[in-house]
Write the structure tokens for this entry.
Amino acid sequence: MTTTEIQNDLSEGQGRGFYRAAVFRRQAILATLLMGLLLSLCFDLALGPARYSLQQVVTAIFMPGSASLQERVVLWDIRMPIALMAVIVGASLSVAGAQMQTILNNPLASPFTLGISAGASFGAALALAFGIAIIPGSIQYVVPLNAFVMAMLTALLIHLLTLKRGVTVETIVLLGIALVFSFNALLALIQFFASQQALSAVVFWTMGSLTKATWPKVWITLAVFVAVIPFFIRRGWALTAMRLGDTKAESFGVNAKRLRLETLVLVSLLSAIPVAFVGTIGFIGLVGPHIARILVGEDQRFFLPASALCGALILSLSSIVSKVLIPGTVFPIGIVTSLVGIPFFLSLILRTSRPSW
């Protein structure tokens, strides 16, 4: 064996070692995020008007027969749907934001900044203020149905724009910003004509709240999340390639336009359902993916689960904060996430150094 071959073998061995170390580090980060999420979920269940220890929470979850009737009712029937809804909604919005940023190659893309959340707010306000049902259905679900339909119509409008020749991703982002302002203006018009009682309901809904979470809503939101995620897992390599730009992605055999269309439809569904049930919760779809990107990079094998875990953890922690800011009062969770997200959003806009990717 020549000296050159020996050097090549050593270099190849070092490369494999670096790769295994990088994979292990990312797996450790994912495990840490998962443990943090489970701990946050337990604290979220423990806090409230009646406070329980972590031991009582764990006992009620894994050994409900050993817990008292009051503990089972409070933790399982009242707090568990709210706590799980925070986890699922946070994961859904964060994954939606992550894939929007991927296909549009824009660090500010998210369901909130592209107008999907604003469209949902407008649809919900129509039902809350004037009783208008876009699709006839159960009175109990007229608000989430309106919100879902308007969110999907907003996504359809964005999709139709992508079909026009010569349209760039920058144009799509600008359209989303225009939609945000348009729906906010329409929402203000509804608030102007609404009665005092309806106005209070509209304002509360637009703040975002988990307090009306129920088990059926949890299962529906979870079902959508579970149905959409496998597509992103299967197309993980192609989505990673999209970060190199359409030209390079297509040179690898990726149909960039088709992938962008499929992803846009799925992330619209992934963000419309949670917003329809819990109201407008901003910045989760913006902050979660950026934190995940900083921790594990762009590889979808790690970026996708990290985005879901970061979003779930942020919203779960926000749920805890909303309970402890003022004892006895539960703040709308949308206020908490905005207070966290606005500084981060401004830092992205004002950043003049190298790109955040």
Confidence is low (pLDDT under 50) at residues 352-357.
